[in-house]
Amino acid sequence: MSAPMIIRARTGGPRAFVSDTLLLTGRNLRLALRTPQLLALATITPVMFVLLFRYVFGGSIHVPGYPSYVDYLIPGIIIQTSLFGGSSSAVGVAEDLAKGVTDRLRALPTSRTAILAARTLADLLRLAYTIGILIALGLLVGFRFGGTPAQVAAGLGVALLFGYACSWLFTLVGLAARNAESATMLGFIVTFPLVFASSIFTSPATFPGWLRSIAEAQPVTRVADALRELSSGADTTAAVPSALAWSVGILVVSAVLATWRFRRL
């Protein structure tokens, strides 16, 4: 009689975590390429916002300090895209849970933390692609960088960091929702007030007093203002420290809670 086969779990460690994360990131990216309609939707939506606010509403919106509204608009749309891009994590995580994909991955000798890290890393790479499309479109419709290459790179780094933090936040939402429909609804509830009660499309100075105070302090406004300061080469970078603090805080808290929730499934 032959001896029974024993399957040993992979020994944990940083190398195993990195290897598993990269492997699963590739899997998530391949799945995204197999559903080009979702990738197209993620690209077309911000493009529509740019064209709508540039050519339909832009003529009636004037922001102090920005002679051309498009120079105010494009950084805001980039941050909006970072937030919306993170919300796709909620749907992806919830779908994997509902279809049993997560259970199959957990049954493999794979780092459990890598399953979540791969999801957020794949979303970050897709976000970088979409931001590239937005910058190209922005240049076509009149947007211009006023900062040095280092300032522009720092601004885009802030946007990507915020997007990565949002991806972890919505991963937590997806784990709590457990199905795509609930994840979509929860994502909308979170993103809608953050986007429209912010400086993405216009200055909060035009808001009612009570709403202005909220809008100026919330993370989307701080990150959008930080990107504008860096991309325009402004003399002040007052929004950058608070933007980094918000992004790092959201990232750390969300990653810890999402990992804890995932291990309790």
UniProtKB/TrEMBL annotation:
UniProtKB keywords: Cell membrane, Membrane, Transmembrane, Transmembrane helix, Transport
Entry annotated with the keyword Magnesium: no
A Pfam family recorded for this sequence: ABC2_membrane
Any coiled-coil regions, as ranges: none
Similarity remark: Belongs to the ABC-2 integral membrane protein family.
GO cellular component terms, semicolon-separated: ATP-binding cassette (ABC) transporter complex
Keyword Transcription: no
GO molecular function: ABC-type transporter activity
Domain ABC transmembrane type-2 stretches: 37-265
Membrane topology: Multi-pass membrane protein
PROSITE patterns membership: ABC_TM2
TM region(s), chain numbering: 38-57, 72-94, 127-146, 152-176, 183-201, 238-260
Location(s), subcellular: Cell membrane; Membrane
Protein known as: Transport permease protein
